[in-house]
Amino acid sequence: MKRLFALLLCACAPAHAGLEITVSGGETAARPIAVVPFAQPADATTNLAEVISADLGRSGQFQPLAAADMLEKPTDASKVNYRNWRVLAIDNVVVGELRRAGGRMSVRFQVLDVLRAQQLAGYEVDVPDARRLRAVAHQIADIIYEKLTGIPGYFNSQIAYVAATGQDKNRLFQIVVADADGMGPVTVATSREPLMSPAWSPDRRQLAYVGFERGRSAIYVHTLATGDLRRFVQEKGINGAPAWSPDGRRLALTLSFERNPDIYVIDVVSGARKQLTQHYAIDTEPTWSPDGKTLAFTSDRGGQPQIYTVSAAGGEARRITFEGKQNLRPRYSPDGKLLALVNVDESGYRIGVLDLASRNLRILSSGPLDESPSFAPNGAVVIYAAQGRQGAELATVTVDGRIRQRLSQPGDVREPTWSSLIR
Amino acid sequence: MNAFIKLVAPIALLTLAACAKDSTRPADDTGGTGSDSSSGSTSPYTGPSAGSTGITSGSGSAKMPTGRMVYFEFDSSEINAEGQAVVDGWAAYLAANPSAKVRLEGHCDERGTREYNVGLGERRGNAVLQALTSRGVGEAQISVSSFGEERPVAQGHDDAAWQQNRRVEFVQ
Which sign does the torsion angle of CA A66, A67, A70, A74 carry? Predict the structure, then answer.
């Protein structure tokens, strides 16, 4: 029996039907908003207002009004009758229009304050590619979110994850890239052997991930636009857990060729290598603080896996988690104040968020087998993998724990990781 | 450029490589009960090199072991008595056949994070490697790899499945 090793590049392979999305949780404390259906040509198949409403609703910050419940559907601020929105207790109304002028397409939209009966802001967004209308809708949702909450949005970003289908010899592993709402999945790599630990470069142009060739692991750097795949490191033993430095110049990763797993930092261009930890225990799963000065990682040097920090310059590691039996796989929040992690106690494996200043640990998920947390680019949402009814699936939860979302598809989906924001 | 890092064009990774792994595995996985006839022993491991004494190098006299799985407790890399028996069988076979090679694939159950489990799977593989070399097997005959929790043999999410998945496989 011959087994084929093939890490195939499928630059534009339309993946499966896409993730099925279920949202649950708190309609309380969310801000009532109405995104009125935009005026748009019939051949523009993406319903802009619908995508924007769904984004805002999923964030937990907004409670969008269904189009069917609207008393009027103006597409310009001058046509709005504010009383029609006051009676529905709506705080903000968004109206807009997709227009074509010459060969150019753009969306003009306005954000309105119902109480003051005035326009808060007006925008015009270019549509460079009519096939990417969904991305424009996400971009508009980000603008609205930032205007009304004061913090950047996260809708026009992408997630990468690992999908695995089939059993035994038919098992197929894929690296998939999709929009942050799970739509538009594209398979960027497939293999008969495991693919693991995808990590976005800060500029979103590259993914680092782990692959295997006849049982030997390696870390690859994959440039998405060109399909260029570079075998970045393949030492004897473990080559795992790649994490880009915030400046995109270095990768922290795990190598075990010097006898047991330790954290190394490798310069992406020069290949210059620095060993950051040296301990007979398992040291793995590094993550960089946003200022690039500190790395957090998992180590079982104390007997059980716990999270430690070490200076990027090297030196002594310091244990920072003490709650529960184990704490593993940390990820820094974009502001560097929180660590998302996997906490283990009698309730199983749950996602927690550790406040690094107060050392307060907040549990965000119910387990029993949750793993791989990753922050949205604005830090307000965490995506992770959970065991669902039809296999491993993805879940998101707002950092305040109010809004939950499940993204599932046949087969296992896991190891989600969120890209930076596309502005 | 660092000599350890090789640049490859995408096409190089499309290369198809034959791997005779499955067809040459010893048949009849006994579930780690260690019923291999070459050692004839299911007693706990008692000391280094016990299984290799008196075996003539290169004779090929020791039989191919029948068990190829060593199982582990949760988050442990300790080889139990049943596992020692499997190791004894392979130690005798490999010591008697110095040209024979074996790959030890370490695996974990689905609990625990994925990369930590890759570390744990390697630790299990290394525990078996040390048990083999202490019985006189040459280190050059053995390689260790770890798949962590990525290659379960049992698909369930319960103790029975987890027990089967925490293992080191002998692969030829």
Answer: positive
